[in-house]
Amino acid sequence: MGRDDDLAAIEDALKRYHGRAAITGIRGVGKTVLAVAYAAKHRLDYRATWWLRAETADGMRADLVALGQRLGWVGDGDTQDAALAKVADRLRREGEGILLIFDNAVDADSIRPFLPLDSAAHVLITTNAHHLADVAEPMEIRLWPRDIGAAFLLARVGTADRAAAESLADTLDGLPLARII
Ligand SMILES: Nc1ncnc2c1ncn2[C@@H]1O[C@H](COP(=O)(O)OP(=O)(O)OP(=O)(O)O)[C@@H](O)[C@H]1O
Ligand SMILES: [Mg+2]
After folding, report:
1. Residue 77 C-alpha to ligand 2 middle, in angstroms?
2. Whose CA is nearest to atom 12 of ligand 1?
3. pLDDT tens digit string along 142-162?
4. Ligand 1 atom at minimum distance from 27 CA
5. What is the pLDDT of residues 47-87, one digit of tens each?
6. Same domain, 25 and 107
7. How far does residue 104's CA lie from ligand 2's centre (Å)?
8. 125 & 50 share domain
9. Model pTM greater than 0.85?
């Protein structure tokens, strides 16, 4: 909702920096939803789209191995290290048409060892970090303006009280979700 320009910006960003773009922005602003929307919109442009839990090295290792298994690149008997090496090699040689989404990356250093840096694969990263500039083209998404925030609340809550929805959207600063502590 309200992210057509951001979707177009991802398409541009992927063209600018070796096919790697990072969606940045504050917690809860809609980065993961936007990555999902990009993947859905472009599902026919890729032969494989793969989700990686990028908060931890273990998550990225497991999800890269799972990609290799799914594409038949690794065997059942491979150790995790052997499987990761095979996946890296295949991505280097056959990365064209593959989209990897690294969701919730902590920072550039933590994901760099797992990125296919010399590959034609596209990489889309979501992160709360500000600086991923040396691994991907950063693209910051902003809080919703009042009208989109209100439209989201009206659609979700099913009320017709636009004035109340706008007031609440202001109170929530344009965030889709908020928690009162
Ligand atoms: N463009 C959108 N249209 C409709 N709903 C949205 C949109 N963006 C976000 N939301 C709603 O807000 C919630 C939070 O969005 P999301 O999980 O994408 O945030 P995030 O920036 O990835 O957060 P985090 O930093 O915690 O990972 C979603 O589960 C969804 O309900
Ligand atoms: Mg997220």
Report:
1. 34
2. 176
3. 988 888 888 888 888 877 788
4. 25
5. 999 999 999 999 999 999 999 999 999 998 999 999 999 99
6. yes
7. 5
8. yes
9. yes
What range does the domain containing 150 cover? 144-181
* pLDDT range class, residue 171, cuts 50, 70, 90: confident
Does 161 lie in the same domain as 85?
Answer: no
Ligand 1, atom 16, residue with closest C-alpha: 30
Contacts by residues 23-27 (CB-CB < 8 Å, ≥ 24 positions apart): 23/124, 23/125, 23/126, 23/127, 23/139, 23/141, 24/127, 24/128, 24/129, 24/130, 24/132, 24/138, 24/139, 24/140, 24/141, 25/128, 25/140, 25/141, 25/142, 26/128, 26/143, 27/128
Residue 164 pLDDT > 80 = yes
Let me know whether 97 and 136 are in one domain: yes
Q: Do residues 163 and 81 share a domain?
A: no
Are 118 and 154 in a shared domain? Answer: no
CB-proximal residues (5 Å) to ion ligand 2: 31-32
- Residue 36 alpha carbon, nearest atom of ligand 1: 18
Q: How many domains does the chain have?
A: 2
Kindly list the protein residues whose Cβ atom lies closer than 6 A to any atom of ligand 1: 1-3, 25, 27-33, 104, 126, 128, 152, 176-177
Q: Residue 39, Cα to own-chain centre: how many angstroms?
A: 9
CB 139 within 8 A of CB 23: yes
